[in-house]
Amino acid sequence: MINLEIPKKFGALLNQAHQAAAEIFRPNSRKYDLAEHTYPKELDIFAALLDGVNASGEGGGGASGVRRTEKGTGIRNGANMSTVLGTIELCWGDLGFLLSMPRQGLGNAAIASVANEEQLARFGKLWASMAITEPDTGSDSAAIKTTAVKDGDDYIINGEKIFVTAGERSDAVVVWATLDKSLGRAAIKSFVVEKGTPGMQVVRLENKLGIRASDTAVIRFTDCRVPAANLLGDPNINKGFAGVMQTFDNTRPLVAAMAIGLAWAALEETEKLLAEAGIEVDYDKPANNQHAAAAAYLALEADWEAAKLLTLRAAWMADNAKPNSLEASEAKAKAGRVTTEITLKCVELCGSIGYSEHNLLEKWARDAKILDIFEGTQQIQQLIVARRLLGKTSGQLK
């Protein structure tokens, strides 16, 4: 039998996360959905608390929890697992709020994943967003056109990035760029570009379907000069893309965890509304012997449980220094897909209540869609899984 009890050592962190979700995220969720591009100032208190947890060394809270040791011996105290579990709790409150957390962006996870110790000391306390996607380059990260040309002790970056989460609010951006287009993916590296660097410009903010509490920016780099020391990880061009892609092995389970938390909120609210309508979900009866709405709910919950288990497995593997690229993509693909299905079905099951702005179900359905798109679309995750299972390269299976 699988023991699904949460280890006691995570109790305090998860309790704090749930309190923040219940007392800060959820009560202000609709407010910032309606006030797109406005920074949720309520986050500052919780962000400071999380900074304190990280500084205490008590266990990899937030984005810093994805760091693996230099010798590949894993993460002490299950930091990936605590980060995933904390993310689930916070996204039960509000996904957009989590994506707006200072110093907890995907760029912070990228720094934690591939930075050396000196870089971690310099950049570890910055709020960093991540810039990968380009106008002509979406899911195929290896095809990016932004260039980084060596010039003495610097690199000069030119290009445009779109859909940069927290791109205007963050202190720095982790930019993916190629050192030599002719070498393909092997030449792709990531660079930390701090705000205020000449040649870096936030061009505009996007208006979006969901996650409106989180800003999404277009950033242009024009002869943007950054120190060579800002190239994350190994500068060796023969150790390029694999090192950069390690970021995704760490962040895809986090995106899956976001989906798990959001779907959990929708399921919980739907069960409550069904009960108020006189429809009880009975776990001791077969689904086909219950009300049709209860049977549909049980099917949704089963899919949610499967996605959660895949996500926890990917995090556990990272904490135990096991390669988890396959499992990270499986978790992200499953969680992203089922969460969009769950939230839409919950709206349907709750009828006019689910469709109305008087309830958060319609917002959660809008927020959910991004989870099946960013950090690699559903189709890309399935392609990665197929390559891993069949032993094919990206050139052999496209």
From TrEMBL:
All copies of domain Acyl-CoA oxidase/dehydrogenase middle, residue ranges: 129-224
Pfam family, one: Acyl-CoA_dh_1
Species of origin: Kibdelosporangium aridum
Entry keywords, A to Z: FAD, Flavoprotein, Oxidoreductase
The Acyl-CoA dehydrogenase/oxidase C-terminal domain, residue ranges: 238-390
Single GO MF annotation: acyl-CoA dehydrogenase activity
Name recorded for this polypeptide: Acyl-CoA dehydrogenase
InterPro entries noted in UniProt: Acyl-CoA_Oxase/DH_mid-dom (IPR006091), Acyl-CoA_Oxase/DH_mid-dom_sf (IPR046373), AcylCo_DH-like_C (IPR036250), AcylCo_DH/oxidase_C (IPR009075), AcylCoA_DH/oxidase_NM_dom_sf (IPR009100)
Top-level taxon of the source organism: Bacteria
UniProt-listed SUPFAM superfamilies: Acyl-CoA dehydrogenase C-terminal domain-like, Acyl-CoA dehydrogenase NM domain-like
Cofactor(s) this protein cannot do without: FAD
Family stated for the protein in its record: Belongs to the acyl-CoA dehydrogenase family.
